[in-house]
């Protein structure tokens, strides 16, 4: 049975979010606000179709895609850089590669016990986030 990421998840830890934001070129004032946030993720997984809605009191970001199919991502409200994104399975991990101006950009989601993990990568920076079910 495939892993099911569906659910509502609350951020409980956020390691090196600052480094990740600096690598993305997010300005100081925005970083100051962003690092105070405790975003929530609402994930809906239906076969190969996924939607990941990241919400916060400051900004929201919505991503919808089909696993294995490349799509255009606009990163609106984040760094606003367009990239070509592809999400695939690596065993039980969901791996996204974001091809664009920034090298080595992407993320990986996986489940560990009752927790949802997310690794966000950009250039030489790695941010590690952990979420718990709401
Ligand atoms: O998740 O790509 O789950 O899209 C990363 C923020 C902060 C805005 C959030 C708003 C990167 C200001 C999305 C935070 C920093 C800072 C809540 C992570 C950029 C701007 C939206 C992400 C994937 C995987 C799905």
Automatic annotation (TrEMBL):
Pfam families: Lipocalin. Residues 7-24 form the Cytosolic fatty-acid binding proteins domain. InterPro entries: Calycin (IPR012674), Fatty_acid-bd (IPR000463), ILBP (IPR031259), Lipocln_cytosolic_FA-bd_dom (IPR000566). GO terms for molecular function: lipid binding. Keywords: Transport. Gene3D superfamilies: 2.40.128.20. It comes from the Eukaryota. PROSITE patterns: FABP (PS00214). Belongs to the calycin superfamily. Fatty-acid binding protein (FABP) family. This is RET7 protein. It comes from Asarcornis scutulata. The gene is Rbp7.
């Amino acid at each position: 049975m495939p892993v099911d990421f569906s659910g509502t998840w609350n951020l409980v830890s956020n390691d090196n979010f600052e480094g990740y934001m600096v690598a993305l070129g997010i300005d100081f004032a925005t970083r100051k606000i962003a690092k105070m946030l405790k975003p929530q993720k609402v994930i809906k997984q239906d076969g190969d179709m996924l939607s990941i809605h990241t919400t916060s009191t400051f900004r929201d970001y919505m991503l919808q895609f089909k696993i294995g199919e490349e799509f255009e991502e606009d990163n609106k409200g984040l760094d606003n850089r367009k990239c070509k994104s592809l999400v695939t399975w690596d065993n039980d991990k969901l791996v996204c590669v974001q091809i664009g101006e920034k090298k080595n950009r992407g993320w990986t989601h996986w489940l560990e016990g009752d927790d949802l993990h997310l690794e966000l990568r950009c250039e030489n920076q790695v941010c590690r986030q952990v979420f718990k079910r709401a």
